[in-house]
Amino acid sequence: MSLRDKTTHAIAWQFAARLTERGLRFASSIVLARLLAPEDFGALAAVLVVASAVEALTYLGIDQAIAQSSRSADPRFLGAAFRLMAIRGALLAVTVFLSAPIVSWYFERADLAPLVRVIALSSLFTGLTNPWIQSERKELRLQPLSITLVVAGVAQVVVAVGYAWWGLGAMALAVANVASTFAATAAGWALVPRAVVLTRDKESTLELRRYAARAAGVPLLIAGFLQLPALVLGRAAGLPALGIFTLAQRLTSLPGEIALPVFGSVLAPAYAQIREDSPRLRRVWLRALGVVALLVTPAIAAMVALDDSVPRLVFGAQYAGAPGVVSMLALASFFSVLTSCCGPMFWGIARPDLDRIAMATRLVVLLVVGPFAARAWGAAGFAGAFAAAHAVCLLVCLTFARRVTDASWREITGALGPSIKVGTVCLAIALLVVRVFGSNMPAIAAPLIVLVLAAAGMVVLALRVKRALRGERNAGGTND
Question: What pTM was computed for the model?
Answer without folding.
Answer: 0.71
